């Protein structure tokens, strides 16, 4: 392919993407394909002769698009949003055009320095403590990782290495393997699966401590666990707290957790993968309480900042702790400006050697939307979630399971786990909206998350009509079945739903 053809293909691809995103509501959010659909459609060998890009683009429409789950659709309400925006897509394309791998400053000075600039912009935008800025006096700073999982793993590994060094200094009688065998880390039972996985990868047990009834992990629970471990000769290393848990967007109590971590010299990392975007809002200032006492923090720009995956910001209070843990050198990696604090070699701050020019899409997105545009985006998702919450409250057949938090509403039809499962199954079969379930203390519920770069009030109404009409359909079906079969189980199920509906109406009328 020469430059002329690239221009044609590239322009056609931009048109394709613009058409796709502009008309995204026309497609059902879930694809209508069975496992193996694509394997049956494509040849088993690559083509021997080159094919024209027009054929390839045609096939993207014909075979790829039908197998896409439309994450950018405003009818997507599962997981958390995976954002994108036109400027970010262009940034991604330009970064691919440069085709660089910026693992050290010399490998593309702009890649490193732009990352330093945008990470400081972002830290200020989110009102993070000054010590996280590259431009501050101290050893802190921010870096872009691929995902929250990588950021958490980096924190866990760095904390582990720091703990090994310091414990061996104070206990020279112990061998390194003895020390490593005693390490232990903490998080809440509400934390994301990536935290447990980081423990597996770091070969260090992570105790998932019970969050309270309100899904929040507090200092007293951590203190009790640490005291038990210390008494048993174990070495507490790190606590990974969450601001915005995946299940219910609960906020761990950073202030009490940090007090315990300081007392026991335990690293405190905060996973704010989703909720971090709200730090920027004055009305959410409470979320930032205690962040001045944490050692590291991560926030996914690809969730709330209209930057496309992958782009996960991580800040360190003392970046030297990570650099010292991960610094493995070779003569071919050296350059004469190494070690200058203003120009970090970010390869020491991450797991891979190579690194993408992610700062470019961040810079382009921030400049073209402005801080005000980003804040408005977060506020819009919050407002739309409030709209959905009101619809749940008004329908007595449903109940909220946790307080609405940012763009997430956790709710369920009254009547137990079985009704929740059946309702979700009906919705999934119809493919018009996409939600997932979560569970706490044996109670299953549905998570409704506002997603998409351009979600509107009418999309919320669309989703609600779909949900409540499917519950009506389910109730009618169950009542018909119960009448037909006279089956006790069917009747029980039917009456459960009916009963909860009646109770709810009664409660409402009181
Ligand atoms: N942490 C939280 C709170 C999350 O909700 C998620 C994913 O939704 C993650 C971590 C994992 O994010 P990533 O896919 O960027 O690793």
Automatic annotation (TrEMBL):
Listed CDD domains: DOPA_deC_like (cd06450)
Protein origin, superkingdom: Eukaryota
InterPro entries named among the record's database cross-references: Aromatic_deC, PyrdxlP-dep_de-COase, PyrdxlP-dep_Trfase, PyrdxlP-dep_Trfase_major, PyrdxlP-dep_Trfase_small, Pyridoxal-P_BS
SUPFAM superfamilies assigned: PLP-dependent transferases (SSF53383)
Keyword field: Lyase, Pyridoxal phosphate
Requisite cofactors: pyridoxal 5'-phosphate
Family as reported in the entry's similarity comment: Belongs to the group II decarboxylase family.
Name under which the protein is recorded: Alpha-methyldopa hypersensitive protein
Organism per entry: Drosophila rhopaloa
